[in-house]
């Protein structure tokens, strides 16, 4: 049977990609795309792929015309941080980098942020209440919260916030599955500019240490091992970008889902203690990161299909999160009391499981919980505008009345 390839440009995909993911699961859960990558869309297969310890290093990719066009545009340079971030390294480098960063990005450090997060959320809700009874949820809450938190955690100067927002918005385009040489040039330039800004702040912190994550990363050491200057810049850029871009989607997409399911919103209002599991279900229902990449270094068998060595493989997190074979016949429904909601793969799985999962959960729990509690008349006040991304798909504008 000939299967129509994965098509993120199909009409309506930006607003709702889930029918396309359901089609892939039904017709070809392990599917080769004409542009040279494979996409795996069923829960069991995605989970196996993520836990298999496959590579994330581009040097293992076999030649392909689409990828060769990118190399011709930007050379053999990686689009993000010279390929030195945890996101782009295999063991043992990944293990070493993650261990050093984990020494300072601890669960205790994240939990201690809750009063700060609560204060930022309450100030944002005050602005919404004062702005004529509503506004854009993304500009007022979903973006400022994680951006402010990661800025404060790292100890970054606030003056460049607008420029940094533009740069990180470009940089996450490097995670899109379909290559575009012209866009690759802009992404690479954004990475260079943001890396230079971070390097400048690091030099300032070396001379003026403070009580922040950046200073702690500079000092992080284990058995004499420390981060090199280039490694330090790459980890900070990764934390900076991942620390807010994905959580924006969790908050905005999560609130949109609740407002489109008034019965579930009412259930949360009736039982505020449900918020922890509600965040897990919102993460499952509309994943802030839709896809995760892996690269085969040898033939890899999954779902009864062998994927060749040197292949770029997309783990379809959003497709796995709505797979009826795992979640049951109501997989497409939002149900905040779903008992196994935490089994979603929105934070990945295996060695590259998201280091910032605890921070995202904290910010989502406080932001969504307090928003729902504060405004009993919260409602959409217009059409939701989506950001047009395939991977970090999220709402760009969410007009609400309170």
From TrEMBL:
Which InterPro entries does this entry report, sorted A to Z? Answer: Cyt_P450, Cyt_P450_B, Cyt_P450_CS, Cyt_P450_sf
Q: Which keywords does UniProt give here? A: Heme, Iron, Metal-binding, Monooxygenase, Oxidoreductase
Q: Which GO terms describe its molecular function?
A: heme binding; iron ion binding; monooxygenase activity; oxidoreductase activity, acting on paired donors, with incorporation or reduction of molecular oxygen
Name the Pfam families on file: p450
**Keyword Metal-binding on entry:** yes
Keyword Heme on entry:
yes
Q: Where is the signal peptide?
A: none
Protein's name according to its UniProt entry: Cytochrome P450
This chain's source organism reads: Actinokineospora auranticolor
